[in-house]
Amino acid sequence: MSSPMNIRFGERVRGSLEQFAHRTGQPKSRVVNTAVSEWLAAQAHPRVRFMTIETGERRATLTDGPQVWTIAAAWQSHPDALRNVETVADALGLPPSAVTASLAYWADYRDEIDGILERHRAAQDDALAAWERLQALQQG
Predict the structure, then answer these.
(1) Do 47 and 62 touch, CB atoms closer than 8 A?
(2) Three-state SS string across 16-50, please?
(3) Least CB-packed of 98, 103, 120, 124 within 10 Å?
(4) Residue-wise pLDDT tens digits, 123-137
(5) Maximum alpha-carbon separation in the chain
(6) Residues 34-84: pLDDT tens digits?
(7) Cα separations (Å) of 31 from 8, 19, 37, 38?
């Protein structure tokens, strides 16, 4: 649920906000809400920043590493007996602190990261199904 809030912006910020909102076709309130949400998340998780991917979606990314969801996926892919920071870090070629930072973000933003993981798995399933249809067609 959202609630109205009166915020005063300096002229330069207001102008930039209006230009960005116009250019992206987003309401100003959504732009501000996204910016503040990301800023707060980055304050709580100093190694996390946000980047826009090809689809226009904003993703949490380590300042010195990959997107957070990729580390979460690697974490999940390890069997329980081998699921620890050091093993996952070694498998990814990252320092353990990067895995720890990603796990901390994932813990605080479960819905966001789990949603990305779910969409990624669905895309993999779709790609496999398309490949299997192609193979069946080529084999007669």
Answers:
(1) yes
(2) HHHHHHHHHCCCHHHHHHHHHHHHHHHHHCCCEEE
(3) 124
(4) 999 999 999 999 999
(5) 67
(6) 999 999 999 999 999 999 999 889 999 999 999 999 999 999 999 999 999
(7) 15, 11, 10, 11
